[in-house]
Amino acid sequence: MIRLISLLSGIIFGLGLTISGMVNPQKVLGFLNIFDAWDPSLIFVMVGAIIIFAPLHFIFKKKSRPILAKNFISIENKNIDKKLLIGSSLFGVGWGLAGLCPGPAIASISFLNPSSLIFVLFMFVGFFIANRIEKNI
Amino acid sequence: MNIINFTPLSALTGGLLIGFAVFLLFAFNGRMAGVSSIAANFILKREQRVDNSLFLFGLILGPTIYSLSGSKIESIITNSIPILIIGGLAVGIGTRIGNGCTSGHGICGISRFSLRSIVATISFILTGIITVLIFGI
To answer: Is the pLDDT assigned to residue B137 strictly greater than 80?
Structure first.
């Protein structure tokens, strides 16, 4: 069952990215292009997701355990540090260059478009590099 | 500033679906649907590799299932290969060093009212806007 939920969550997430148009980098770049021709759609995607998850998270986090798994995986890190700022800022630069973030990038594997496949390949290379250099930041 | 290509209804609908997907993974499996973490853990860690791969596979299936309904999905990438490589590397390294992306910080984190995630989200949106301002769409 846990595995089925993982798959189902991924499918619904992918459908949401598709319906919202976020698998199209032009829509994401349009959102970041606020000083020229702005497409505010991305805000509605985030608001839609947050108005569903915020109240449900608030209710379910009080339960002793999830419905299927043994425990909630807790997130201890609350530090607003150099790593968070450097990492997030660097991510924003990559996001602004190609209009792809990890969710839509992986979902767009389904189009077998060479451009998005190159992006995904080097995103994974980036994961490896970060894993190596992380401790030195 | 002009507003163009604004699709609030489909954006909100897709966002609600994404919120529901994130809720499913949290309520049943006790996990946060941060795509960069799931994708990085999938290649770097043995634990929960099956769950992680099923989620990612679902993400790829999402657009495929949507296209079965006969609707056309627009995904246009105009970047050159070097830009795609630099963008992919920046997104991969940045999301790992900053521990999250648009889904992990932007949706999951803000829904938990995490100050850390709010700071991260502001950072990547700001550098994304600056990048588009400098390099254009």
So the answer is: no
Give the contacts of B136 (CB within 8 A, at least 6 positions apart).
none
Reference A97, options B82, B123, B97; nearest CA is B82
Q: How far is CA A2 from CA A7, A16, B56, in A?
A: 9, 21, 14
Q: Which contiguous run of DSSP H or E holds residue B2?
A: strand B2-3
Write out pLDDT tens, residues B69-126: 888 999 999 999 999 999 999 999 999 999 999 999 999 999 999 999 999 999 999 9
- Cα A123 from Cα A101, distance rounded (Å): 9
Surface of A (1-20) touching B: CB under 8 A: 1-3, 5-20
Give B2-44 pLDDT, tens digit per residue. Answer: 899 999 999 999 999 999 999 999 999 999 999 999 999 999 9
Q: Do A33 and B132 touch (CB under 8 A)?
A: yes
How far is it, in rounded angstroms, from Cα B29 to Cα B67? Answer: 28
By the 8 A CB rule, do A108 and A100 touch? yes
B8/A122 Cα distance (integer angstroms): 32
- For residues A80 and B119, the answer to whether their CB atoms sit within 8 Å is yes
Enter the DSSP assignment of A63.
Answer: S
Quote ipTM for the complex.
0.97
Residue ranges of domains in chain A: 2-136
Count the helix, strand and coil residues of chain A and give each as a percent rounded to the nearest 5.
Answer: 70, 0, 30
Cβ-defined contact of B65 to A52 (cutoff 8 Å): no
Q: Is A94 on the interface with B (CB under 8 A)?
A: yes
Phi, psi angles (nearest 5°) of residue B82: -60, -40
